């Protein structure tokens, strides 16, 4: 009986040292410094979290540049880890999804893309921030109060497809077709596209009447805003 209890206790002890986690993995590696110079994956557990550097290896996981992943891993505590090593061992349980990232052809910087749309007037404010992971909106000028939802694969692929129809580096030269905002007849609107350290900002235009070159993208952005507001 004592032996049986001991076996059960040992089983529970080792089980308590293991944990299963779901991780999101970004589509590119970044330079980082651990014991020495290396390249790290970027991971997070929830779509709304910030990306964090992952210095370790995941046993059984073969990362391929240009694909984002959702994976399930088994995390085990290591007894007496080396001084310059991790105290945790990561082992792949399963790949839940693997999605190819489509980079806009006219953006040379191979970094995640963020789309930001802002419209403001005396009595109105809208900010929409769209990434591959989330659609976030705010009607608060300080952006302290926000609403968000995951950005679906189809929605993000359409964003990137529309970006490929735009000369992104020239959006600051686009002319607004109307000027109602100049006498408070419409909110001032602006589009911002960021990739890595590069930020491209359009000229100001009337909310609801963007330059025709970016009109399809703006319409798609506003449809995503509407989908968040309905939830």
Question: Features of this protein?
Answer:
231 residues; alpha+beta; Mago nashi protein; 2 domains; seven-stranded mixed sheet; seven-stranded antiparallel sheet; 14 strands; elongated; DUF4377
Topology:
Layout: H1 2-16, E1 18-25, E2 30-33, E3 37-44, E4 52-54, E5 58-59, E6 67-77, E7 88-100, E8 113-121, E9 124-130, E10 134-138, E11 147-150, H2 153-163, E12 188-195, E13 198-201, E14 205-206, H3 215-229
Parallel strand pairs: 5-7
Antiparallel strand pairs: 1-3, 1-6, 2-3, 3-4, 6-7, 8-9, 8-12, 9-10, 10-11, 12-13, 12-14
Helix pairs in contact: 2-3
- Overall 3D form: elongated
Q: In CATH terms, what is the fold-level topology of the largest domain?
A: Mago nashi protein
Report helical residue fraction. Answer: 10-25%
Beta content: 35-45%
What is the total domain count?
2
Q: The biggest beta sheet, please?
A: 7 strands, mixed
CATH architecture label name of the largest domain: 2-Layer Sandwich
Number of strands: 14
Tell me the radius of gyration.
23 Å
Identify low-pLDDT runs. Answer: 2-15
What is the number of helical segments per DSSP (H or I, 4+ residues)? 3
CATH uppermost class of the largest domain: Alpha Beta
Distance between the termini: 57 Å
> What order do the SSEs take from the amino end to the carboxyl end, as H and E?
HEEEEEEEEEEEHEEEH
Mean pLDDT: 85
Protein structure class: alpha+beta
Pfam family, one: DUF4377
InterPro entries: DUF4377
